[in-house]
Amino acid sequence: MASKKIELDHKDMVHDSAIDYYGKRLATASSDSTVKIVNIGAATAPSQVLATLSGHYGPVWRVAWAHPKYGTILASCGYDGRVIIWKEDARGNWSQAHVFPDHKSSVNSIAWAPWTFVLPVHDDGRISILTMRPDGGWDTGTIERAHPVGATAISWAPATALGSLAGSGELVCLQARLWRV
């Protein structure tokens, strides 16, 4: 497999990257407080920074793409305790669709569920459950003391029919602890 050099133009360390559903774009999270969207689609064409997303007030730890059936949506989280939902319009312009600024500590990880949930994980051990409503608004829930010493990673159970894994609800893995939400 041939390698391809990708120019990101970040001014500081890159902490995370995620390739979109189609393998055409890369999102990166950096200590320079930005998220970059990079075109990586064609194997022979040079990569190109399509957008620089600013809105965090400190290092950005993670980025995660939503499933494309919800549009072109990306979530980012960072040291500033913010979770930002970014949305691309039809002309390729990115904007903040929603900002969750009420976290009191660093948000270390995020993951999209197959059903439009975002799970941010906090330094203080809480998990937030952010759910998109049909009207485009968001509801927020919290699992307090999900991990007493904080957590740095989270993932959802595989995308299967609701309740088919082990009864009702969805399983979430938080650093080797399972939670049903």
Automatic annotation (TrEMBL):
Top-level taxonomy: Eukaryota, Viridiplantae, Streptophyta, Embryophyta, Tracheophyta
Family as reported in the entry's similarity comment: Belongs to the WD repeat SEC13 family.
GO BP: any one term: protein import into nucleus
SMART domains the record matches: WD40
A single cellular component GO annotation: nuclear pore outer ring
Name of the protein: Uncharacterized protein
Species annotation: Paspalum notatum var. saurae
Keyword annotations of the record: Protein transport, Repeat, Transport, WD repeat
Keyword flag Kinase: no
Gene3D superfamilies: YVTN repeat-like/Quinoprotein amine dehydrogenase (2.130.10.10)
WD repeats: 53-87
A Pfam family matched in the record: WD40
PROSITE patterns per the UniProt record, alphabetical: WD_REPEATS_2
UniProt GO MF annotations: structural molecule activity
Keyword Protein transport (UniProt): yes
